[in-house]
Amino acid sequence: MAVSVYKVKRTILILFGVFLAATAAGIITLYQLGTDFLTLEDTVKENPQADAVIVLSGSAERLERGAELYAGGAADTVILTNAAEKGTTPDRAVSLGISKDDILEDTKAQSTYDNALYAKDIMEEQNFSSAIVVTSEFHSRRTKMTFDDIFGSDYTLSYAFTSSSYNPADGLTETEKKTTFSEYTKMIFYSIRLLFD
C-alpha cells in the first residue's frame, strides 16, 4: 500500500512544527532563568598548575587573563584558539609578556565547538593532560559544557572567566539582550549536537 505524498508532507510538517515548538520552549525557559544561569564561578584554585592555558578567541580580556595566568606560573604553554582573531593574536600575546616560543596556535576554529576540538588536537600532539580554559563569564556555561564533553575524563580542565562589557546587574542593554538570547540559543543547539557526538 503506497503512502500518499500528502501524508508524508503532513508528517514532515508536524515533526518540524514540534521541533520548532520545543526549541522555542527551551529558549523561553532558559531566557526566563535569567542571565545568572549563563555564568559559572571560576574553578581555578590558588596557585594553579596545568600543562597549558587555553585562551578562547572573542575578546581581548580573555587573552589578558591568560597572560596573567601564564605570568603567575600556572602553565608554560598558551594555546590560542582562532589565533587570527583581533584581540587574541600571537603578536598581542607577546605584547602581554607571553614568550613566542610558548604559544601554540589554532587558526581554523569558527565556533566554541571548534575551539574545543582543535585545542584537544593540540593537547594530544603535545601529550598534555591538563589545561586552564579562559573565556568570558557570559560564555562560561556553554564553554564548560562543550569542553568537558569533547575532552572527556582523560583530561583535567579548570576554568577561568573574565568580566566583559556584559554586565546584566545594571539592567540589560539591547546588546546584552542579544548576547543573552544568542548564548541560550547556542546552548540548546550545542546540547543537541553533543548528544550525537
UniProtKB/TrEMBL annotation:
<dbReference type="InterPro" id="IPR003848">
    <property type="entry name" value="DUF218"/>
</dbReference>
<protein>
    <recommendedName>
        <fullName>DUF218 domain-containing protein</fullName>
    </recommendedName>
</protein>
<keyword id="KW-0472">Membrane</keyword>
<dbReference type="Pfam" id="PF02698">
    <property type="entry name" value="DUF218"/>
</dbReference>
<feature type="domain" description="DUF218">
    <location>
        <begin position="51"/>
        <end position="167"/>
    </location>
</feature>
<keyword id="KW-1133">Transmembrane helix</keyword>
<dbReference type="GO" id="GO:0005886">
    <property type="term" value="C:plasma membrane"/>
</dbReference>
<feature type="transmembrane region" description="Helical">
    <location>
        <begin position="12"/>
        <end position="33"/>
    </location>
</feature>
<dbReference type="InterPro" id="IPR014729">
    <property type="entry name" value="Rossmann-like_a/b/a_fold"/>
</dbReference>
<dbReference type="InterPro" id="IPR051599">
    <property type="entry name" value="Cell_Envelope_Assoc"/>
</dbReference>
<keyword id="KW-0812">Transmembrane</keyword>
